[in-house]
Design a protein that fits this description.
The chain is of the alpha/beta class and 346 residues long. The chain has helices at 7-36, 51-64, 85-94, 108-114, 151-154, 170-182, 195-204, 214-220, 222-226, 250-253, 259-266, 283-296, 300-308, 318-329, 333-343; strands spanning 40-45, 73-78, 101-105, 128-132, 138-143, 161-163, 187-189, 209-213, 230-236, 274-277. The strands form 3 sheets. It has a 5-stranded mixed sheet with strand order 2-1-3-10-4, with helices on both faces. A 3-stranded antiparallel sheet has the order 8-5-9. Helix 6 (170-182) links the parallel strand 6 and strand 7 (187-189). It is globular and about 65 Å long. Mean pLDDT is 90; it is low at 12-27.
Length: 346
């Protein structure tokens, strides 16, 4: 029988093992630094330029680079379409799996579970999640000249029109779910490519409003709030927004028998403010960027700039995001079917 080392021999074995592990970790760190040094990497987002994704993307690109070994140059790329699914497909199946492409995610697990689309290439639980920097805080926002200015009026205004992106996008799904909760007769139209296009349509009177991210308005159109150009009536979040304490959540408005539907959809809001790598990016490079993300979220300069731009932050680690993803992907077929019907997913 093989003897277990003891005394001095055990100490020497322990020291040798630790040195080997330390050397391996150092080699992995060196590999990441060698890869990133002098390289340009991109943060890809599934929207066009502008909107809340663009605001967050630019701030993150500015601050995360200094925490990544090798301090690479970081740029923003856009691949709009299908509520973020096009970008998700690309990162998962077609992008280089070397660490040069990071995805700023939409609520991809919800798209995977609820869209019913057969052309999805990604599996949300196979992404290598980096972390989440906030929550998408969408709010029913109506232009000041809309035929409804209060939630009570929304419930009866037959000529109210809301703009959305595709039916796999949260802007459409929240609008559909609010109809279920309130019985409101408003019309929902799709086809807008990004939030900036819907904002412009709202200004022009083509639509009366939409379920826009609060940060998108507060960060890029602050005068719309200060000059009361818009009315914000319902928040599609897990809890009431600190900035809008008198605005009810959809979960509050939803009848008890359908509240689990609103809760499932709301579980995707932190993932819609996340970063991820594709499934085959080398582990040491993923680990390096995860560490950089964690450090950035504690960086006083990053926090200050986000506050200046009115971008809310809420840190969740890679592990926490993975658990949220699994909560959605493991939802029962019955709940998924009820939710798909409620949000008008096709």
């Amino acid at each position: 029988m093989k003897k277990t080392p003891s005394g001095k021999a055990a100490i020497l074995l322990f020291v040798a093992t630790m040195a080997s592990a330390s050397g391996t970790q150092h080699a992995l760190a060196q590999d990441a630094e060698a890869f990133f040094k002098g390289r340009t990497i991109s943060i890809l987002m599934g929207t066009g330029p502008g909107g809340s994704y663009g605001l967050y993307g630019r701030v993150i690109a500015t601050h995360i680079a200094k925490h990544i070994p090798g301090k690479p140059n970081i740029i923003i790329e856009n691949m709009p379409g299908a509520g973020g699914a096009n970008a998700g497909n690309f990162i998962y199946a077609n992008a280089p799996q070397d660490g040069s492409k990071i995805l700023m995610t939409h609520a991809l697990p919800l798209i995977e579970k609820l869209s019913g689309r057969k052309n999805l290439k990604f599996k949300s639980d196979k992404f290598q999640w980096i972390g989440s920097f906030g929550e998408i805080t969408q709010v029913l926002t109506l232009w000041h000249s809309a035929p409804a200015k209060t939630l009570a009026e929304v419930k009866t205004a037959k000529n109210l029109v809301l703009g959305t992106m595709g039916n796999s996008h949260l802007s459409y799904q929240w609008a559909s779910l609010l109809k279920l909760a309130t019985g409101a007769p408003y019309k929902i139209i799709t086809g807008y490519t990004n939030g900036g296009a819907i904002n412009l349509a709202m200004e022009r009177g083509e639509v009366h409003g939409w379920t826009v991210a609060y940060e998108s308005i507060a960060g890029s159109k602050p005068k719309w709030i200060s000059e009361k150009k818009v009315n914000m009536l319902v928040s599609f979040t897990l809890e009431r927004l600190q900035q809008l304490p008198d605005v009810p959540t959809l979960i509050e408005l939803m009848p008890k028998e359908n509240r689990d539907i609103a809760q499932l959809l709301a579980a995707g809001t932190p993932i819609a403010r996340g970063l991820t790598y594709g499934p085959n990016v080398p582990k040491e490079r993923v680990a390096a960027v995860r560490s950089a993300f964690d450090a950035m979220m504690k960086d006083k300069d990053f926090i200050a700039e986000a506050a200046k731009r009115q971008l809310a932050l809420r840190y969740r680690s890679a592990g926490e995001v993975q658990k949220l993803v699994e909560t959605i992907t493991s939802a029962s077929p019955v709940l998924v079917a009820r939710t798909m019907k409620a949000v008008g997913a096709k």
